[in-house]
Amino acid sequence: MYDMKNDIQSVLADEATLATICDRLAAQITEDYRDSRDLVLVTVLKGSVLFATDLMRRIPLPCEMEFMKVSSYGKGTETSGFIQVHLDLKRDIKDADVIVIEDIIDSGRTLQKLQSLLAHRGAHSVKCCTLLDKPDRRQVDMHVDYVGMIIPDEFVVGYGLDYDEKYRNLPYVGILKPSVYEK
Ligand code: 5GP
Ligand code: MG
Description:
The strands form two sheets. This protein has a six-stranded mixed sheet with strand order 4-3-2-5-6-7. The protein has a three-stranded antiparallel sheet with strand order 1-9-8. Helix 1 (15-32) packs across helix 2. It has one domain: 3-Layer(aba) Sandwich (Rossmann fold), CATH 3.40.50.2020. By secondary structure, it is an alpha/beta fold. It is globular, with a radius of gyration of 16 Å. It contains four helices and nine strands, in the order βαβαβββαββββα. It has helices at residues 15-32, 49-56, 109-120, 178-182; strands at residues 8-13, 39-44, 64-72, 83-87, 97-105, 125-133, 146-150, 156-157, 173-176. The chain is 23% helix and 30% strand. The protein binds guanosine-5'-monophosphate and magnesium ion. Guanosine-5'-monophosphate (5GP) binds next to strand 5, helix 3 and strand 8. Guanosine-5'-monophosphate is lined by residues 47, 72, 103-111, 155-157, 161-163.
């Protein structure tokens, strides 16, 4: 049997830490959206799925679950890049309060474009909740409303995050050994 633990350099967030993060973010969201009449959690596939399910079961408000799969294009100085939508929402979000659930924010490009797309569809509000944030890597000026944990500029896997589609099922977030992707 091959244990994926062999490929992890160090653990950044263990299971207890992840549970505490979900408790805190869910409590904030519950307070902020207590009067919302149409709350929609938009989970960005695939990396955010484990986080989203742990988060939403801690939110006692009525809310809906939607999924999107997107990829972002655009280089360095470009501000008008576009986003390719591979899987779209199944409902109209006009007048809805949308929270985009992300696994990690790196350059910020994907989220920035996704937020403007959703705002253009007439959502009443669009906020973002991310499990992890790498602020050192940010290339666009944007505000992230709910952040689980700030991490250094390292490549991390686990709890939904992959390398080459693997490691998503690790129950914790860890730094992948560079030897895994440098070979
Ligand atoms: P950006 O913010 O640069 O537009 O894109 C963020 C996306 O890059 C994330 O949703 C994720 O797919 C990927 N990404 C960025 N940093 C990491 C990382 O450390 N580990 C993994 N597995 N994916 C990452
Ligand atoms: Mg992602």
